[in-house]
Amino acid sequence: MFFQLEDQKKELTEFAKRIEDECGLKFDISNNGTYIISLKGLTKNDDEYKTCEITIDTTTVSKGEYKVLRTSAGLEEDTLREMEQCLNETSDLAGFIATLRKNFKGVL
Predict the structure, then answer these.
(1) Counting Cβ atoms within 10 Å, is residue 69 exposed (0-12), middle (13-18) or buried (19+)?
(2) pLDDT class of 40 with cuts at 50, 70, 90
């Protein structure tokens, strides 16, 4: 059982590294329980990550609600709230990330 879990952990780590290398997409969990989505390669010469920190707030809604806390590429507040609302209505995290990448590119 232990070796099986170690094998699964290794496979997931390798998969995450491949996604990071091939797509420039990385997920982290901060010490305070928020999720950090990091994107790189937004411009041809850009190896720097731009980040978006989100949290799932379960205090107000039983199923949880996404809250966008901050981004490292200065997106307008209206844009962030629109994206947050769409994410909460659709639960489409992949669509959120695609829109995030597009909006990051728009401000760079």
Answers:
(1) middle
(2) confident
